[in-house]
Amino acid sequence: MKRFSKLAVPYIIWAALMLVLPMALIAMYSVMEPGNSIISFSLTLDHYIKFFTDPDFLLILWRSLLIAIKTTIICLILGYPAAYFIARSSEKVQNILILCITIPMWINMLVRTYAWIGLLSEGGIIQRILGIFGLGDVELLYTEGSVLLGMVYNFLPFMILQIQTSLSKMDHSLLEASADLGASPAQTFRRVTLPLSLPGVINGITLVFLPAVSSFFIPKLLGGGQYFLIGNMIENQFITVGEWNFGSAISMIMAVIMMLLMMLVRKIETRNQGGKGAKA
Amino acid sequence: MKKKRRTLGKALMILMIAFFYLPILYMIIFSFNDGKSLTSFTGFSLRWYQHMLESQDMMTALYTTFSIAILATIVATVVGTVAAIGLSSSRKVIRNIMEQVNNLPMMNPEIVTAIGFMLLFITFKVEKGYVTMLLAHIAFCIPYVMLSVMPKIRSLDPNLADAAMDLGATPFKALTKVIVPQITPGIVSGALIAFTMSVDDFIISYFVTGSGVKNLSIVVYTMSKRVNPSINAVSTLVVVIITIVLLVINLAPVIAEKRVKKGGAVKRKRWVPAVAVCCVLVVAVAALQRGGITGKDRPFEGQTLHIYNWGEYTGENIIGDFEEETGATVVMENFDSNEQMYIKVANGEAYDILVPSDYMIQRLIEEDYLQKLDKSKLDCFDKLSDAVLGLPYDPNNDYSVPYFWGTVGIVYDKTKVDIEDLEREGYNIFLDQKYRGDVYLYDSERDSFMMALKALGYSMNTENEAELNEAYEWLVQCVETMDTEIVTDEIIDNMAQGRKALGLIYSGDASYVMAENEDMGYFMPETGTNLWSDAMVIPKNAKNPDLAHAFINYASDYDGAYDNSSYVGYTSANQEVMDDLSGEGGDYEGINAYIPRTGNENDEVFEYNADTKKIISDLWSRVKIAASNAG
Lengths: 280, 631
Fold this sequence. Notes:
The structure holds 2 protein chains of 2 kinds. By secondary structure, chain A is an all-alpha fold. Chain A has one domain (66-279): MetI-like (MetI-like fold, Orthogonal Bundle). In chain A, 78% of the residues lie in helices and 0% in strands.
């Protein structure tokens, strides 16, 4: 197979240009004085200092992380049983269910989110239904709840699909073996199914957490003007304020935080696998 | 026990599917709505489908979305597969490094990736448009393809290719005949992921696009919240397309199987019909989109006019009519704030016409971005209302021709708000506890500060920091004690449905609200308001100023101006159109919001001042943070 290694060369060049260089540019812009050109510029850490010394900015960052964590937990709680159910169905049913979950993703995400505005708004269908139970006065739209709902709605499919993939790869004879050896279903689940599905869970968490922490149109559409997250802040810097250097600095901060979090998650994953090995 | 758990699982699954499809169902239903509202269904009609077919913008966006998705999928799948095969036989160091590199777009928040692409294109002066969007899509799709191909290659016997070559196959043959067939499932699922990511992408496309190239997401987003229900019609169309594609994919093998029943083994190439159907659809949409009539002898045949305008700010027919009359193609891009427009212009993007507001025109003139109009080519000035000509930002109208104008005021529900309260308190009604939880603020820093400053009796153009701080305190008090909602254009639909008692609103939007709901009124406090105007200007770097002048004439002329004003609801700068629409039998007869107030000495026109603007922006973002902490 060695002779195929040349096939990778064009992609390595492409990746350097299209994947590495952009990140390098963000890093560069983030330490440049505003208005400098890329050829002659002076370095500064002002943008980072500006961010970390302003309690309001930190509050926004904190809130963004918090809502992303909430979204991820809800998606995990809802997504795991669903994925489990799908993975245990017959192959035909599996295919249909997966299709059912994928199709909505082909219809524009923004349009689907828009529809929620109509559903949740005052006098909308959901409020009218709640009204029957005497809860008609509950505000649904432009609350943290509506932002959370929008995020779960948009990102839950990623979680389900990832977990389902790793569950369906699982060898079913393992379950039988576990049962034969006297394990209760709960034990089998905890000792066999759960560890084996962990890579899928980790991938799912990544795929939900990342877009949730940086989303800016969901808070904008469902949270109203007063719901501001870090993604909105970055968008603002680039689209309406025009302070690209500060915007780049915030992006860098986000990227680094994400990297650290992901490393942490990976570490938990490898430690878990290591532990398993030791037991065996 | 087991059965019980299955039933529980089934119930969960059904609920979840319902959850996923509820908004889609809602969207389909409202695509048939007669009214413009997104929340109240007023009757069955196909008008939004008609609007969609007539709207070049939407058909082009549909075409862009799918053509980019298909091209990006094909390229990403081929490149990704080849690269994955190559990498799997490369040295481990390279393989590990590339894995990390591929993780960059996957392990970073999408907005960071998007900004990286944007900076890349801007730094190297690549003109943003279709090509940049396609490149970005290919770039973020390839890692996903590789991710799903790699494991399949790893599970291959490494000696397989060698064996094939020992048996006399060329490397190419070994690759295509031996390796690729073995990893096909990985390739197909990779392609599927790439397609899904590309079709649904918004953030990356939003940051890397330019020159008026838009996919569906961008169209929806830049519509801001002035909803145009034809987007529901487009999405319903997408649902239909997908359903057809799926049916074909699932039925084709069955039919094929029947035909070749005798022929033994059937290869189930599920993706072949899918690709075929997609190609046919793209061609169909493309044909539909380009199927205009090509006449001759028109003055601007084959030329292109780039307009950068507010979202939903033109009539239904004006663009089509203008194109038909002149033979030119109009490319319209939309912005939702003056600042957004300014940044694009300041970054050197070329447009032929912009439609900024008063203070922004002043700024653009001061910073030398605009060219003087050639008045010998314009025949529109004597048709325009005197009240909107010669305003301080451009005293001789050397640079600008007014488009819409109006005021800012309070929209209120006559059944809930006592008019005496309004007359007595003016803007201070926004601090009146009687209306707690029943008010909308508008997410515009200028107009919110205008309201606060006018409530306090100051000029809205004040440069006095103490006065600005007082206004800031006023606004903070408002958001902290009144349980406000800060909205943008959703105020239009919400007030038309009578959801709150009070809101700060642009007069043009109030006209629409009042035309929809007769319980609504529009009030301008005596302490003054913002007398604003949006006008057409031609930037210095315009590529086709002649055509731009022609459009300015066209949009100011009776027919064009009538179409704009009657559809959008904003007051036309054309005096005759304004008189007709507000007069007997006009669309806005008896609606006071349609006729801007003149003669109140407290009313002002916004002026641009860089320092003040910065202070106000900063304070306003703090007001919003206070609001989100109060909620």
